[in-house]
Amino acid sequence: MNAPTSTRINSTTAGRGDRGSDESARSLLRKLLITVATGGGAYVLTNVISPGPDDLWRVVLSVLFGGAILIVQFMITFAQQLGELRGVVEQRFVDIGEATKLFNEVEQLRGDGVPRLAEYATKVVANGPKILHDFAGQEIERLAGYMYNFANLNAKSPGENHDWLLTLTKCATTSIDAISTSPVDGDFWNSEPAGRYLEAQRVAIDDPQRRVKVRRLFVVKQPEDIATLDALCEEQRGIGIEVRVVALPHLPINAQRGKMIDFIIFDGALSYEITADQMGVPSWTTVDATEKEVQERVKRFAELWSISQNGLPDSVRATTTPPEPGAS
């Protein structure tokens, strides 16, 4: 399907060349007509001013005057073309400057796949059916939109974006702190993406160059719900995740008033949040790196983590733990 495209391009280029040739011919004809008219006018004018039998000097004067007019026309045309050329050259220098700046910025991202993205994007355009071109174009537009939002330190994605979750887990270098609420997380932990997520966390924990510390706090509505998470907690503890479970009634009143949403803090610098609708279905995923928002999440996690220990705050545990044998 490249042949018809090449034919159209060649036809377009040939059409532009023909139009350019026609315009040049018309411009030259115009100049010649003006020259002849000017020379004829000069001849008539000299004949009126100084009538006489000797026409040679009149002819010479008319030719010189007409030639001068022709030269002036060519000089004017040359000046116009020179001005246009100057504008083109200046624009090219601007384009080169922008391209150089972009190239330098891309060079800094050489290890981040940006050059490969540009290379393969051009290959997609050169090969494959039109629908693949359109699909690739839409994906690039979507990625560009996310990059624009990331530049503003905040981005949203419809639903629960598992790709972001896995990628951020792979990028974490020091810590992952998560609060999971049972209404939103109930179905997630039985899904295939959950398995990949836990595996990515295991790799982050075991990686000798990273040794990421992963902490997860499950928040349930009622104390009797704690036992339902025993198997899940044991699974996660088995791969090195620090896990705690707490029921809302066991939290102090001031802690219960705070916003209770799912979020994950990566390296203490970026939060990944899930917003659920009234039916408990994830509707939005938000990635936020603004310092104010992240610090609020860090503070909230630290508050809930510090008062939670295996599902019970210290104050509650002190009144519910049975005394040891022999204790008075």
From the N-terminal CA to the C-terminal CA, the straight-line distance is 91 Å
The quaternary organization reads as: single chain
Largest sheet: 7 strands, mixed
How many β-strand runs? 7
CATH class category name of the largest domain: Alpha Beta
CATH fold topology of the largest domain: Endonuclease, Chain A
Radius of gyration computed on alpha carbons: 39 Å
Supply the number of structural domains: 3
Q: H/E order of the elements?
A: HHHHEHEHHEHEHEEEHH
Can you characterise this structure?
The protein is an alpha/beta fold. It has 3 domains: 107 residues; 39 residues; 165 residues, Endonuclease Chain A (Endonuclease, Chain A, 2-Layer Sandwich), CATH 3.30.870.10. Helices cover 62% and strands 14% of the residues. It has 11 helices and 7 strands. The chain has a 7-stranded mixed β-sheet with strand order 1-7-6-5-2-3-4, sandwiched between helices. Strand 5 and strand 6 form a beta hairpin. It is rod-shaped. The N terminus and C terminus are likely disordered.
Task: Give the SSE map.
Elements: H1 2-49, H2 56-108, H3 114-126, H4 130-151, E1 154-158, H5 162-171, E2 175-181, H6 182-185, H7 192-206, E3 213-220, H8 230-238, E4 242-247, H9 253-257, E5 262-266, E6 270-276, E7 282-288, H10 291-306, H11 314-320
Parallel strand pairs: 2-3, 3-4
Antiparallel strand pairs: 1-7, 2-5, 5-6, 6-7
